[in-house]
Design goal:
single chain; about 475 residues; alpha/beta; FAD/NAD(P)-binding domain; 2 domains
């Protein structure tokens, strides 16, 4: 028994799910759809994370939707402005009646006989469970576990008399003014937090085991702002967006083809920011090459400014244990702290760890293959939105949403009810889902499908290539099975 049926069920009301609904309205008019969101508000990551300074690490001309221009002067935007953008999108497309909050998907069962998904949903505040059926299921819940962040075990934590905080669960009432703060980590969250905290804290120390590549970029794009003053918003947005897409791709290709040169250039830029007396070799020279892990972006060099002015410092060492007053390092040095922030990473999950079954058989993602980075082999009528690791998240999500609409319209025209990517190539070599060496990725790869060594099973992480594959490529490609 099901309570309701929809043509398409979208899971997640963050940047991916909102985009999926807009594409569906525009390209598949008349389809009945619903967005279910486990939390009490829209926005996903941009509503969940509330730590000081939270912002994008991609420019908003590519992180924004292709159909809605970004018009704020800041190209590197903070979370409140991104949330405003998402709320505007919801209002403009009248999506709110199609969203149900406090609806968390816990299981999904596919029936070939009925050609539909039965999706079990847990309602918040003791609302009990409900089952909604749908013809097509679009998972737009992202990669991150919203209920848990990654927190390694540290010896002596119980001795510490100060506060220990994970950025994912930042207490809004926390007063860090005049306090000594140690931020453990050197990823995107840490380099965002340090300059933000350093504005009012007594001092902030970024404690890292090893360095990360950090590059500075202007928070405002002067060319973009001048162009927007001269041209209509949509025309200016199109030009700026494509300029940024092509520039990002050029830089990425240069880093991959000439890694030593790229490393040398990035380190030289850091030396220019911090001056000749700073130990860049120890604190800002990673052991790996650029794009073996994501680069960290700091707008207007705010992290470097905080270090130059003495409001913040970087320490490269390993933690031996917590003490009453702070942290003891393996070098023997002690860091005094009133507050310790564990910016130690996120916990990744695949398809929100929902239990999927196909005709009674439990889906084991690690035994499956990723099809075009947006479907799973052997799983019918289901797509997932997942962004690029080397470019803005929304670029791939927009392509995925448009492909799903093409697929649905194609099935309608030809009388198909079921589409399933099926691998019949016994000699296909398989690889890990992602190639980045970042700890948060490596810890979770066992939960993800594999990718193949060639199309359509390979994730090329290339927007230009994906445009042709997803917008113009054949749907009947010899792999997708229609019934």
């Amino acid at each position: 028994m099901t309570d309701e049926h929809f043509d398409v069920l979208i899971v997640g009301a963050g940047i991916s799910g909102i985009g999926a609904a807009c594409h569906l309205q525009q390209r598949c008019p008349g389809r009945r759809y619903l967005i279910v969101e486990g939390r009490a508000a829209l926005g996903g990551t941009w509503d969940l994370f509330r730590y000081p300074g939270i912002r994008s690490d991609s420019d908003m001309y590519t992180l924004g939707y292709e159909f809605k221009p970004w018009t704020h002067p800041q190209a590197i935007a903070d979370a409140p402005h991104i949330l405003d953008y998402l709320r505007e999108t919801v209002a403009e497309h009248q999506l709110e009646p199609h969203i149900r909050y406090g609806h968390k998907v816990v299981a999904a069962r596919w029936s070939t006989a009925e050609a539909r998904w039965l999706v079990e949903i847990e309602r918040a505040n003791g609302g009990g469970n409900t089952v909604i059926s749908c013809h097509f299921l679009h998972m737009c819940s992202g990669y991150y576990n919203y209920e848990h962040g990654y927190a390694p075990e540290f010896e002596g934590v119980e001795l510490f008399t100060g506060q220990i905080i994970h950025p994912q669960f930042w207490p809004q009432e926390l007063d860090y003014s005049g306090k000594r703060v140690v931020v453990i980590g050197s990823g995107a969250t840490a380099v965002t937090l340090v300059p933000a905290l350093a504005k009012t804290a007594a001092h902030v120390t970024m404690l890292q085991r090893s360095p990360t590549y950090v590059v500075s970029r202007p928070a405002e794009d002067r060319f973009a702002n001048r162009l927007r003053a001269l041209l209509p918003d949509k025309v200016a947005y199109f030009i700026i967006r494509w300029r940024n897409i092509l520039f990002q791709r050029f830089i990425y290709e240069r880093c991959i083809k000439h890694p030593r040169e790229a490393k040398k250039r990035i380190i030289a830029m850091v030396r220019e920011e911090l001056g000749p007396g700073y130990d860049v070799d120890t604190h800002f020279t990673p052991r790996y090459y650029p794009w073996e892990q994501r680069l960290c972006l700091v707008p207007d060099g705010d992290l470097f400014a905080a270090i130059r002015e003495g409001r913040a410092a970087v320490v490269t060492d390993h933690i031996a244990s917590f003490t009453e007053q702070g942290l003891r390092l393996q070098s023997g040095r002690e860091l005094q702290a009133d507050i310790v922030v564990t910016a130690t990473g996120l916990e990744m999950q695949f398809l929100s760890d929902v239990k999927f079954t196909v005709d009674g058989k439990l889906l084991e993602p690690e035994r499956a293959l990723s099809y075009k980075g947006m479907m799973v082999s052997g799983v019918p009528n289901m797509a997932l939105s997942a962004g690029y690791t080397n470019a803005s998240w929304t670029l791939k999500c927009d392509l995925t949403c448009a492909y799903v609409c093409r697929l649905l319209n194609y099935m309608d025209r030809h009388g198909y009810r079921i589409c399933t990517p099926v691998n019949r190539d016994d000699d296909l070599q398989v690889e890990s889902y992602m190639s980045l060496s970042s700890g948060y990725i490596q810890r979770a790869l066992h939960k993800f499908p594999r990718q193949g060594a060639r199309a359509p099973w390979k994730l090329y992480q290339n927007y230009l290539r994906d445009i042709f594959a997803l917008r113009f490529g054949r749907l009947h490609d010899g792999v997708m099975e229609f019934r």
